Amino acid sequence: MRPPRTDRGRLLLILALATAVTVFTATVPLLRDWFDLRVYYGTVNTWIHDGGRVYDYRVPGTPYGFTYPPFAAVAMLPMALVGLHTAIAAALLLNLTALTVAARVLTGPGWRRYGWYGVALAACALALFEPLRDTFSFGQVNLLLLALVLTDCLLLSTGRGRWAGIGIGLAAAIKLTPALFIGLLLVAGRRRAAAVATGVAVGATAFAALVAPDASRFYWTRALWDTNRVGRLDYVSNQSLQGVLARLGVESRPVWAVLVVLVLCGWAWRSRRAVAAGDWQAAFALTGLTACLVSPITWVHHLVWLLPSFAVLIRAGHPRVAGALYAVLCTSVVWLWFDDASGVDGFLGSNLYTWITLGLLVWLPTGHFPDGRRPAAHSTSATVAPPSTAAPAMRAASDQPGPSSTTAAAATGATTSGPGRGRAGARSASSEPTGSTRPAAANPQSSSSRASS
């Protein structure tokens, strides 16, 4: 089937796709009913209006409460001034803005060549991506953190590293996982940016300690080390290395630590090579993949950190690979093993998103750019070469007519538009919010009694 060539045909195709996506998202994966946003909203309102403590709040009828560092609660204080529906609307707008920023950074200036038609196709594809669906439906903060981190990626890749580190620091103060990007700055030899990121994170944390000293003391001494506050490690939504081990029944911390060290070593080696090639986007993509793997708990909606990897794949000339992997992450396939993850099929299927993340960490191409050349500011310390006496002769020679050369242009990071569909079993299980600590119920679709964080 040929794509439409007229604006009228393209508009009709977009309307048809948008209708199909809307029907799919409204009927197949049941919505999460803003569960996490309700956690944030209830925590802040109980703290400010009722004199309660941040980490004591629980959503009525559930054992779930606030699990982020105290600075996150401080940053969410404006919710105490508005109603729940206003907070939901604000969360939607913030997530849409963050997604736009992230997409703009990942696609670069090349997005203009696709016009409104390409943007509309990408929007339809993004709406099917399970981690994004859950992030919006839960009212989660992952997209905001991704946008903050990618802003630093843009600064570094465009030679404006003087201001880099602020976004990473803020993201790390809100949630601990992005702190690995400070490690990337150190691996890349960007000590100033790493110092800025660390200073911002420490400063924000100190500010939260002044505003909420009791909450800060409790979080850093007790809540941080209590994984039971978040949920079961073996829950199928936990697509981290720890989740794989837990579903295998392996409870050994040393085994997990060894795997984490191996992954971190591979990440450091690959990221250093990517930065040496001037490929900051690939380095940030590799770091997002690694953060998902080494974190004790990586719920499915945390996998929005995989989006930079798909942009890198497309830019490097592998759109089919990107499309196939992206389609898998649209299917909710891991939920087929919601009740039983035993056996070979359970080992492979229930951890499929983890295998994709691990495979991308190992095989993600680096050093590929749309124009076939490295960006101007690719080295960690740029120096200006002294004038050469041969320069006039070389310049004169370059003025002579000669054969022109052509450079193969790689595709820019546009999101693929061909995600697949889940099976019937995935339909019923995909609506189960993450972090469940109760035994599986007969109908795991109720989204009002579970939390995710």
From TrEMBL:
GO cellular component annotations of the record: plasma membrane
Biased composition (Low complexity): 377-393, 401-418, 438-453
Region (Disordered): 374-453
Annotated Pfam families: GT87 (PF09594)
Membrane topology: Multi-pass membrane protein
GO molecular function, one term: hexosyltransferase activity
Membrane-spanning intervals of the chain: 71-102, 114-132, 163-187, 193-212, 254-270, 282-307, 319-338, 344-364
Subcellular location: Cell membrane
Record's keyword terms, sorted: Cell membrane, Membrane, Transferase, Transmembrane, Transmembrane helix
InterPro entries: GT87
Family statement drawn from the similarity comment of this UniProt entry: Belongs to the glycosyltransferase 87 family.
Name of the molecule in the record: Alpha-1,2-mannosyltransferase
Organism: Streptomyces aurantiogriseus
Lineage of producing organism: Bacteria, Bacillati, Actinomycetota, Actinomycetes, Kitasatosporales
